[in-house]
Design brief:
The chain has 209 residues and is of the alpha+beta class. It contains five helices and eight strands, in the order ββααβββαβαββα. It has a single domain, classed as Gcn5-related N-acetyltransferase (GNAT) (Aminopeptidase).
Length: 209
């Protein structure tokens, strides 16, 4: 039986967003996290696989952090700082949350994330994604979570696939950056998939090059 939409959806600003996983604490960003994330957000090479440009001044990072709180206050998204061993080292968000358009209920959000390079390859982002997926469906009450990555972003594609997202398509020449058009891979998961994410992995896999 498909799950019907909830009669009421929560005010994002009223949610307790703290999540603990075996190795991570996910929590709201604080102004003082600027120093911890500055080495990564200011590295010109770091955001190349994402939509944003490296920060030039710490003020931009502070504006970003404050913007994440505004997003939640306005009900359009939740962004968590990823804390490992007591220090902010990354970011994960359910953003562009929409509940409806005209006569349609949509109840969906878009997943995004990044992690400090020294921590890559230990399964940490997969751990964070699995926790946020569950939170998005069970606490926020979303019906669908969408996620995408550039076709050449092998690490992110693996995270998405390990978490069990269903591949829905490849968007050719979707965005332009660093002198070239890049394709996007798009994935989604609906709430009913959560019971058996292994079933979604049987779907057609993308052509990545
Ligand atoms: C993508 C990212 C979040 C992954 O974080 P992570 O904690 O290293 O992820 P995990 O360890 O959970 O999983 C990474 C998987 O990708 C694989 N991987 C990583 N880099 C790879 C590469 N260049 N080629 C092939 N596989 C790669 C790892 O081996 C691992 O798979 P495995 O468990 O099957 O071995 C991190 O690399 C990052 O922050 N990148 C920059 C920002 C970014 O691209 N964000 C996503 C935008 S869509």
């Amino acid at each position: 039986m498909p799950t019907p939409p909830r009669a009421l959806h929560p005010r994002l600003s009223e949610l307790d967003i703290a999540i603990t996983t075996p190795r991570l604490a996910l929590r709201e960003f604080r102004d003082e996290d600027v120093e911890a994330i500055w080495p990564w957000v200011s590295d010109p090479a770091f955001p190349r696989q994402m939509s944003w440009a490296a920060h030039v001044e710490r003020g931009e990072t502070l504006d970003y952090i404050r913007g994440t709180r505004t997003e939640r206050a306005e009900g359009t998204g939740i962004v968590w700082a990823i804390e490992h061993e007591g220090r902010a080292c990354g970011c994960i968000g359910l953003e562009s949350i929409v509940w409806g358009r005209r006569a349609w209920r949509l109840d969906r959000g878009e997943l995004g994330y990044w992690l400090a390079p020294p921590l890559w390859g230990q399964g940490l982002m997969t751990e964070a994604v699995q926790a946020v997926m569950r939170y998005g469906f069970e606490v926020v009450g979303l019906h669908k979570i969408r996620v995408g990555c550039l076709a050449e972003n092998d690490g992110s594609r693996r995270v998405i696939e390990k978490a069990g997202f269903r591949f829905v398509g490849r968007l050719e020449e979707d965005v332009y950056r660093d002198g070239a058009w890049h394709a996007h891979l798009r994935y989604e998961l609906i709430v009913a998939d959560l019971d058996d994410v292994t079933s979604t992995r049987r779907f057609q896999r993308p052509i990545t090059r």
